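To the wet lab folks,

You asked to see what we're planning to order before we commit. Fair enough. Below is the target structure as tokens, and below that is the sequence we designed to fit it. If anything looks off to you, flag it before the synthesis order goes out.
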């Protein structure tokens, strides 16, 4: 049987696409890393299932929703919890990540720079610490991982989300040592690290 083919479509940024890139790299899975230039987005958007990316095309079938894709790849690459309760904890964590991201919507979407700064301040002074303080305690209790004292698929959306928050608020993770070391741990997974080193050469553009 021919091997499964994977094509990832996302913007030329990390964002939600990076979660899937890291997971495919971790699983030692070849994939086409296809980037959509901003000017081509309005046209490409019409061809996506729900008008958004990332889209992972699996053997030609386009699939939406980054966290659902992460869960699917986690099953393939043996990154599920040790039991149903740990699987539930993974699901609960990624739903909470979605809540955290949604709370930043007015900040992310605002175009007026003054208003954007007001939203940004509120997000980083209230919403982000509310969640990150709890996450930091959770990761410490779980031996440095998000769930069950070992690597699971949930660590990938978790780290991807934390990296995005840190990109927009440099230095943020310094206040959260357990989160910071989890981000380093995932980035230093051998296959993730090697993929990152050569990722620039592997990008394709539509
Ligand atoms: N729940 C979706 C959200 C996808 C999403 O928000 N995608 C953004 C980029 S991160 C997008 O496509 N924005 C462009 C648009 O909506 O036109 C997922 O997790 O995949």
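Sequence we intend to order:
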């Amino acid at each position: 049987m021919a091997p499964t083919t994977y094509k990832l479509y996302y913007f030329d940024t990390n964002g939600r696409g990076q979660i899937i890139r890291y997971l495919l790299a971790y699983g030692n899975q070849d994939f086409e890393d296809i980037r959509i230039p901003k000017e081509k987005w309005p046209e490409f958007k019409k061809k996506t299932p729900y008008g958004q990316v990332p889209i992972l095309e699996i053997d030609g079938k386009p699939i939406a929703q980054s966290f659902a894709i992460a869960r699917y790849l986690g099953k393939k690459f043996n990154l599920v919890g040790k039991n149903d309760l740990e699987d539930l904890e993974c699901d609960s964590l990624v739903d909470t990540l979605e809540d955290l991201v949604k709370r930043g919507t007015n900040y992310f979407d605002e175009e007026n720079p003054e208003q954007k700064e007001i939203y940004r301040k509120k997000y980083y002074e209230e919403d982000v610490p509310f969640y990150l303080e709890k996450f930091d305690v959770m990761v410490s209790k779980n031996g440095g991982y998000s769930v069950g004292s070992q690597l699971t698929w949930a660590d990938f959306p978790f780290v991807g989300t934390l990296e995005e928050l840190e990109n927009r608020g440099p230095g943020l993770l310094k206040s959260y040592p357990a989160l910071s070391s989890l981000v380093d741990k995932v980035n230093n997974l051998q296959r993730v690290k090697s993929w990152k080193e050569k990722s620039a050469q592997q990008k394709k553009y539509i």
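Structural context that might help your review: The pocket of glutathione is lined by residues 15-16, 45, 51-54, 65-67 (CB under 6 Å). The chain has two domains: 6-77+190-201, 84-187.

Thanks,
Computational group
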